[in-house]
């Protein structure tokens, strides 16, 4: 049964009672190009012990123009199996740059839902998965794809969902947001922009600072790699040198080895760097470095490196300009959409790190990214990060809001776009750096294991403590 409601923020009443709502933002993969990874376990209907329903919601295409009443269908999922209507909250899990999904049974989020006797709902991000407003992805249609519109989607849907449950709830209303990566930023921004809807937020690896020239990213990848010793970094440098020389001599040989027949040098550079980045970012730094030592002198090392990348979600075709320029919508292929978001507003452009031995090709400077974004859309699309940060406060967001926990993995390169520390905290804002071996992007959102590092276990305890404090607060 499809629920298509126009009730919400535009000209509607708000008389809710009785239930705490916890909004969890999921990011199906990392920022920039890493959209084939998920940050936590995904619901499997065949094995899950929970009953999960799918439904649809009518949301506005343009929340910023009140004369525009066009709507689109936005997909969401929900389960009431764990919900105690007298005392339990709702975990509202809103997905980000990829196909939406409901969290898996073993995820930290479902463990939290069980402890809190919570209902769980997940909302798909506009333009991703099946929640696409237009028949194709031409540039003119994509102007409504932004974090501003996504935040408004979230607020409008929250109003709808509260209204749907208000007659069932028997406890005072509380709402908390949780998200990871880009959605971690959405989580913090929801608390900042809609404090009347959001009582607290977890921003896991939340990239709240829109950075144009993000060389700190590459520097952190190098620092993390060096934890495995200098040999690993030397091998990566060797691969960069060999591939560049081989491409200059005969690009087709390189394309064959990496199964990249449609790529040119500009898109290949981005793809190749991410083979190493993805492994480090997602906590597989040790695995990467061990693997590189085993293939260092292998005559088929380039083919084996390409396969390693594919096993870690980095495939050449997904990075190609041919793929990015595809206008056809596909629920499982979302690379054009995310490229538009970082090229039009968010930035996070991975440029070479400091020194003369960065872990990506030196050509990948800001001029490269201007060319990359223009080629992707056949138009001069480029991010205005100053505008984004002026609206949401960049790292200074901590001075203008309250009740947020920021977490970052100690080996995660994205930590430098997030809040790593808080000084003179008087607003219940906490920053947790989870500094342990192979602790990468959104590491605490994954399912808990007995062998997890003490630092990781401590971070989850602190998150639970913060939520209990906010739940018990009378403010």
Explained architecture:
This protein is an alpha/beta fold. The chain is built from 15 helices and 9 strands. The protein has a 9-stranded mixed beta sheet, with helices on both faces. Helix 5 crosses helix 6 (about 250-255). The longest helix has 20 residues, at about 230-250. The chain is globular and about 70 Å long. The protein starts with 19 loop residues before the first strand and ends with a helix.
Instruction: Give the terminus-to-terminus CA distance.
Output: 37 Å
> Which ranges are low-confidence, i.e. pLDDT below 50, for 5 or more consecutive residues?
1-19, 26-36
Report the order of strands and helices: EEEEHEHEHEHHHHHHHHHHHEEH
User: What radius of gyration results from the CA coordinates?
Assistant: 22 Å
- The counted number of beta strands is 9
How much helix is in the residues? 25-40%
Q: Could you give the order of strands across the largest sheet?
A: 2-3-5-4-1-6-7-8-9
Mean pLDDT: 90
Q: What gross morphology would you assign?
A: globular
The number of helical segments is 15
What structural category do the secondary elements indicate?
alpha/beta
> Sheet with the most strands?
9 strands, mixed
Strand content: 5-15%
């Amino acid at each position: 049964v499809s629920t298509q409601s126009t009730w919400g923020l535009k000209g509607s009443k708000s008389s809710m009672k009785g239930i705490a709502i916890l909004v969890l933002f999921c990011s199906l993969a990392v920022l920039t190009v890493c959209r084939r990874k998920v940050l936590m376990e995904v619901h499997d209907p065949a094995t899950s012990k929970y009953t999960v329903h799918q439904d649809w919601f009518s949301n506005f295409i343009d929340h910023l123009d009140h004369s525009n009443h066009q709507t689109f269908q936005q997909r969401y999922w929900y389960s009431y199996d764990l919900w105690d209507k007298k005392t339990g909250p709702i975990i509202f899990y809103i997905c980000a740059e990829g196909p939406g999904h409901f969290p898996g049974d073993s995820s930290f989020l479902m463990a939290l839902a069980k402890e809190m006797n919570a209902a769980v709902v997940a909302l798909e991000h506009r333009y991703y998965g099946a929640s696409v407003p237009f028949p194709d992805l031409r540039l003119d249609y994509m102007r409504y794809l932004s974090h501003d519109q996504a935040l408004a989607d979230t607020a409008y849907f929250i109003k709808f969902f509260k209204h749907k449950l208000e007659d069932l709830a028997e406890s005072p209303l509380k709402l908390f947001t949780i998200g990871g990566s880009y959605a971690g930023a959405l989580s913090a921004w929801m608390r900042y922009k809609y404090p009347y809807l959001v009582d607290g937020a977890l921003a896991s690896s939340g990239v709240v600072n829109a950075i144009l020239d993000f060389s700190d990213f590459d520097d952190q990848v190098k620092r993390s790699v060096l934890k495995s010793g200098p040999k690993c970094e030397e091998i990566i440098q060797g691969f960069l040198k060999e591939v560049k020389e081989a491409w200059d001599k005969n690009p087709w040989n390189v394309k064959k080895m990496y199964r990249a027949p449609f790529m040119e040098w500009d898109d290949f550079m981005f793809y190749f760097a991410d083979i190493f980045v993805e492994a480090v970012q997602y906590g597989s730094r040790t695995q990467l470095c061990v693997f590189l030592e085993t293939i260092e002198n292998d005559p088929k090392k380039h083919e084996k490196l390409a396969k390693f990348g594919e096993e870690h979600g980095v495939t050449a075709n997904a990075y190609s300009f041919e793929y990015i320029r595809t206008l056809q919508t596909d629920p499982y292929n979302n690379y054009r959409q995310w490229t538009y978001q970082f090229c039009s507003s968010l930035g996070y452009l991975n440029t070479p790190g400091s020194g003369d031995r960065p872990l990506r090709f030196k050509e990948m400077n800001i001029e490269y990214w201007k060319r990359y974004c223009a080629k992707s859309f056949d138009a001069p699309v480029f991010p205005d990060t100053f505008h984004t940060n002026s609206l949401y406060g960049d790292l200074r967001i901590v001075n203008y809001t309250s009740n947020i926990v920021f977490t970052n993995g100690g080996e995660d390169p994205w930590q430098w776009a997030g809040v790593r520390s808080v000084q003179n905290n008087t607003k219940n804002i906490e920053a947790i750096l989870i500094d342990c071996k192979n602790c990468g992007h959104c590491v605490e959102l994954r399912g808990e294991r007995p062998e997890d590092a003490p630092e990781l276990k401590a971070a989850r305890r602190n998150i639970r403590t913060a939520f209990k404090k906010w739940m018990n607060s009378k403010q």
